[in-house]
């Protein structure tokens, strides 16, 4: 099996490095390219046996499984320009949520899937969100799930829950990280704790909490219940969070979905208009 990556931005680079470091595949069996070739060459500097191509066509010819890691608005042109090189025996994998497997299947004759990664995959943890196109062969489904299992827990999702699943799995580290940073900043502002001390305590708390959940010592509700002793100090803090932050994620989800639908609409228009011009 040979892997190809078109686009070596944040997520493309995370996938390549994670696959190599997890021993999912040998670096010599991976070929990458990027519009700014120096970014692909920087990745090669970290993994010397990795192959770098000057053009997308070379990566497509090389790969059995092709990961498309470009921005959503670049997708259609990239696929149209290289359509003749993408045989029906290949698997094309999108990592972006606004483009559906069906849209790609309408354009290409090959196997199609979507695998939305998370930054947590860089630590060979967290989930990846998998959706298979209607024509994706069982053999390729098994290969992709096996590959993603080296760096994550693959979770198969439906099109109808793509955005919310991505909010939790992919955007979640940034959302929760922001809240923890606010906690650290407030601790420093309101007490004599230094920023380094607060950051250390908060980071270790998050790591420890993750291990409790991973080992199923507690669920989220039972963890809260155990720490929040009735009439205690934690309970007073929870009251404030309930008053001020209780609905904050309702608003976060509403806004992310609004933005998602805006992007989907633009992408759909792009596919429809350009499809008519073909």
UniProtKB/TrEMBL annotation:
Sequence ranges assigned to domain Pyrroline-5-carboxylate reductase catalytic N-terminal in this UniProt record: 2-97
SUPFAM superfamilies: 6-phosphogluconate dehydrogenase C-terminal domain-like, NAD(P)-binding Rossmann-fold domains
Cross-referenced InterPro entries: 6-PGluconate_DH-like_C_sf, NAD(P)-bd_dom_sf, P5C_Rdtase_cat_N, P5CR-like_CS, P5CR_dimer, Pyrroline-COOH_reductase
Keyword RNA-binding: no
Keyword set, alphabetical order: NADP
Molecular function in Gene Ontology: pyrroline-5-carboxylate reductase activity
Pyrroline-5-carboxylate reductase dimerisation domain residues: 162-262
Taxonomic superkingdom: Bacteria
BP GO terms, sorted: L-proline biosynthetic process
Binding site for NADP(+): 6-11
Protein family (similarity comment): Belongs to the pyrroline-5-carboxylate reductase family.
Protein name stated in the entry: Competence protein
């Amino acid at each position: 099996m040979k892997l190809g990556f078109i686009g070596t931005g944040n997520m493309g680079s995370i996938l390549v490095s994670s696959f190599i470091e997890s021993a999912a595949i040998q670096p010599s069996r991976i070929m990458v390219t990027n519009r700014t070739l120096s970014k692909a060459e920087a990745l090669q500097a970290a993994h010397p046996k990795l192959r770098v191509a000057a053009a997308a066509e070379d990566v497509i010819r090389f790969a059995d499984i092709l990961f498309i890691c470009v921005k959503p608005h670049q997708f259609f042109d990239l696929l149209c320009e290289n359509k003749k090189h993408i045989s029906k025996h290949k698997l094309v994998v999108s990592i972006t949520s606004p483009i559906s497997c069906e849209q790609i299947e309408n354009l290409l004759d090959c196997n199609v899937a979507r695998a939305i990664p998370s930054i947590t995959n860089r630590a060979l943890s967290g989930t990846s969100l998998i959706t298979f196109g209607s024509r994706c062969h069982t053999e390729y489904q098994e290969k992709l799930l096996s590959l993603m299992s080296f760096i994550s827990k693959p979770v198969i999702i439906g099109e109808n829950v793509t955005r919310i699943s991505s909010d939790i799995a992919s955007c979640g580290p940034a959302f929760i990280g922001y809240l923890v940073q606010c906690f650290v900043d407030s601790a420093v502002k309101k007490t004599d704790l230094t920023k380094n001390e607060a950051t250390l305590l908060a980071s270790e708390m998050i790591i420890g909490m993750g291990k409790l959940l991973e080992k199923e010592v507690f669920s989220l509700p039972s963890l809260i219940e155990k720490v929040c002793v009735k009439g205690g100090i934690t309970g007073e803090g929870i009251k404030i969070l309930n008053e001020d932050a209780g609905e904050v994620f309702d608003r976060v989800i509403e806004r992310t979905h609004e933005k998602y639908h805006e992007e989907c609409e633009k992408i759909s228009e792009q596919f429809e208009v350009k499809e008519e011009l073909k």
